[in-house]
Design a protein that fits this description.
This protein has 13 helices and 13 strands. The protein is α/β, with parallel strands linked by helices. The protein has a single domain, classed as Aldolase class I (TIM Barrel), CATH 3.20.20. The strands form 3 sheets. An 8-stranded parallel beta barrel has the order 3-4-7-8-9-10-12-13, surrounded by 5 helices. Strands 5-6-11 form a 3-stranded antiparallel β-sheet, with no helix packed on it. A two-stranded antiparallel sheet has the order 1-2. Strand 7, helix 6 and strand 8 form a beta-alpha-beta unit.
Length: about 350
């Protein structure tokens, strides 16, 4: 059923298909009867799936990665599809349009996407209001929400820490955990913030604010899959030094290795982060390395090439505590959470 729908949606541009699909789901979920039918068909509950991490109770380990619901528009609808948690953003202090279109591309033969969105979002103030409205309006709301935060394109790197603290303060009372995003390849110079000194400044400033709160929030760091072993070791050292709650591994890759899609087409697409199946092995390797280097003391949320229960098990066996899907959601459809959860229970 979804394969047919996907084929129709793939006739639209990726961004148009995304907005059409999610807006349609949103309209359906406004009708109680239809919402209940959707929930019955796509949710899967089992006690063994429940997980407690960072002091938070997850109903299942399958989350939706940042970048899908950037502006916290579809939380109620994504909850209906059974996600255990949703990471909104990346959120920046000021609203920004992102990079010029087209900026999202499909590689169906590789089950992959290339994006260079550029942190397009409505800005932290608008998203704050939207999150508070969701928290206040939703009955029986158990959805865990992560806030993925970044810097505006116009902010120089030496002032980046200011953007992160603005977002942290503004979203503190309306998200359950934070993810510091310094690993997107689509904001010029952003990945330079993964260098040890720059990253220490950002994380230290955030933790100084965080630890003054009555109930500090879990603070995580999202890293790129293209880091050297030395850089990964620096991440491990900083994770302990700044008392991070966890790591998200990994963001998209700038590599284009072993793709079966037409090379001319790939070259025409140009710059951007590659996600999906080509990232599966690379992401798992980094998760395994980080888990061992931290002696399994720092929880990892795995993201990168997760399409089914086998992919999820592979990430969990490598040392991850939770998983996130994104590109897999596009290719597998709304049953992806249920299918992964059922597969994890039956292992």
């Amino acid at each position: 059923m979804y394969v047919l729908l996907r084929n129709l949606l793939f006739n639209l541009s990726p961004e148009a298909a995304h907005h059409f699909s999610m807006n349609s789901l949103q309209q359906l979920c406004k009708i109680s009867l239809l919402k209940n039918i959707i929930a019955k068909n796509f949710q899967y509950h089992h006690p063994s799936l429940e997980k407690e991490l960072f002091g938070l109770k997850f109903k299942n380990p399958v989350g939706l990665g940042a970048g899908f619901d950037k502006n916290a528009l579809y939380l109620n609808d994504l909850q209906t599809l059974g996600f255990g948690f949703v990471e909104i953003g990346t959120v920046t202090p000021l609203a920004q349009n992102g990079n010029d279109k087209p900026r999202l591309f499909r590689l169906p033969k590789d089950k992959a996407l290339i994006n260079r969105m550029g942190f397009n979002n409505d800005g932290v103030h608008v998203i704050n209001k939207r999150l508070h409205q969701f928290k206040n309006d939703t009955t029986n709301n158990h959805l865990i929400i992560g806030g993925n935060i970044g810097k505006n394109k116009i902010t120089p790197n030496e002032d980046a820490w200011k953007d992160y603290t603005i977002c942290f303060n503004e979203l503190f009372n309306c998200v359950d955990y934070f993810v510091v995003n310094v690993s997107s390849p689509n904001t010029p110079g952003l990945r330079a913030l993964q260098e040890k000194d720059a990253l220490r400044k950002i994380l230290s400033e955030l933790q100084n604010i965080n630890q003054q709160k009555n109930k500090p929030k879990p603070l995580l760091l999202k890293i790129a899959p293209d880091l050297t072993q030395e850089q990964l070791n620096d991440i491990v050292d900083l994770s302990f030094e700044t008392k991070l709650s966890g790591l998200v591994a990994t963001n998209t890759t700038i590599e284009r290795k072993n793709l079966v899609s037409n090379q001319t087409f790939i070259q025409q697409i140009g710059a951007g982060g590659l996600s999906g199946k080509p990232l599966t092995e690379k992401s798992t390797t980094i998760i395994d390395y980080l888990a061992k280097q931290t002696n399994y003391q720092i929880p990892i949320i795995a993201t990168g090439g997760i399409f089914n229960a086998a992919d999820a098990k592979e990430k969990l066996n490598a040392g991850a505590s939770l998983i996130q899907v994104w590109t897999g959601f596009i290719y597998e459809g709304p049953s992806i959470v249920k299918n992964i959860c059922k597969g994890l229970v039956s292992e």
